[in-house]
Amino acid sequence: MNRRTPENEPGRSDEGAPMNPASTPGTPGGDASGGTGHALTADEHAEYQRLRRAATVRHRRARYAGATVLLVLTLLLAPLALVATWVHDQVADTDRYVQTVAPLASDPAVQGVVIDRLTDRVVAQVDVEAITAALTKTLSDNGAPPRVVEGSKSLTAPLRSAVHSVVERTVTRAVTSELFRQAWEGANRRAHATVVNMLTGDRQGAVQAEGDTVQLDIGAVVDQVRQRLVDAGFEKAAAIPDSDRTVTLFRTEQLAKAQDGMRLLDVVGTWLPVLTLAIAALAVWVAPAHRVMVMITALGVGVTTVVVLVALVVLRRVYLDSVPATTLPPDAAAAIFDTFLRFLRASARTLLVVCLLTALTAYLYGPGRVARGVRALAGRGAAGAGNTLRRAGVTTGLTGHWLAAHQKWTTGIVIGAGALALVLWNHPTVGAVALVLVLVLVVPAIIAVLAAAQPAPDPPDRPAPDPPHRPAPDPPDRPGPDTPHRPGHAAA
Fold first, then answer.
1. Which of 127, 327, 412, 471 holds its CA 20 to 30 A away from the CA of 479?
2. Do 74 and 297 form a contact (C-beta atoms < 8 A)?
3. Which residues form a coiled coil (predicted)?
4. Alpha helix stretches (DSSP H) within 35-177
5. What is the mean pLDDT of residues 361-378?
6. Model's pTM, two decimal places?
């Protein structure tokens, strides 16, 4: 009789490998019509495996190609999104703009420029030569000695120096006072709000855009003047009409283009970062190796951010070289450039830190030797802390059991919440990133310790020991047919 071996069992190839019945023509259930046929030969099975591997390779290549295209788009859009967001904040957000320019009022270099220019402008309005000439004429007309009259003509230079000193001290006290800083912020806020209202078509401010004209609404001024005239006794002033409450400041054909540009900037500055983040997430999802693509994307965006920072350094050098010292001193020019671009530089640094932390996190979740060592060290530390709590009589009960069973999910939720907090944070800084990082590290560590502090499982019940074996008593002898008869035994 032939023995059934794995090689000749139904559903196996000649090499003993199990075949897929749904993919094997001629096998029961392999034909939609219910017909049966012969099993795959070794050559047919090898060809099937080869075609399957080729299809898998083509699929992976297509995914790699798609992920590469999405990665390139992310790297191109990331610096544009960074700059567009900064420009949008400076142009469309009055509070952000005032926060940007406010430090200039306290910068010593800028204060020095303001003091010098205000002093020169005030002194220029004082005609020292005319004052000296009038003094000389007055002395001559009043019969002053000739020596005194001649000496008065040489007072021009000392008088100009004295006027300059007095004006400079006065202007310095004014510019370095808190009142100047408040006036600086107020003037910039009003000017920026006026420009924003003009570009957005908002009719809430005094300056409004109407068609291709920029108009000044003087309605509030008219109402105040009319009320003051009435209060002063001019009752007929109450009949002043409300018509012509606007004054056309200027007319320009470029106003419509400027408003269109403002609308485009609002869309780009708001949605380009969202689009960039979505494309990056799609690249990670399409790639066959998700963790590796996270590392590549984070490092790539970090490199583009470094390029932006280097470009800012180069732009600063070009700007300082292009500004003549007679127009603006180098220290004041540097202070103005650094102040205006400090939020862009801070955003770039924050993005760089986030990219590095993301790449490091993706690496630590990988199979590398260092990553495994770090995870093992963290696990031993959490287990040791949990055991210490348990020995001290502190256990976490059912909560600890639940945390131990769902530790990966809870850790992932904490990391996701930290990433979402950074995305939703309005203008995050490096300090904000550090705060989120501390929370993301501390909370999973606490979860791991609580999971390790769960009560120790009860030892399994041991079966009760068997009672000692006692041999059964021998049954009484019964004479058999071949047993010789003994006296005292009855006959069978």
1. 471
2. yes
3. none
4. 42-92, 94-101, 108-124, 128-141, 146-152, 156-175
5. 89
6. 0.71
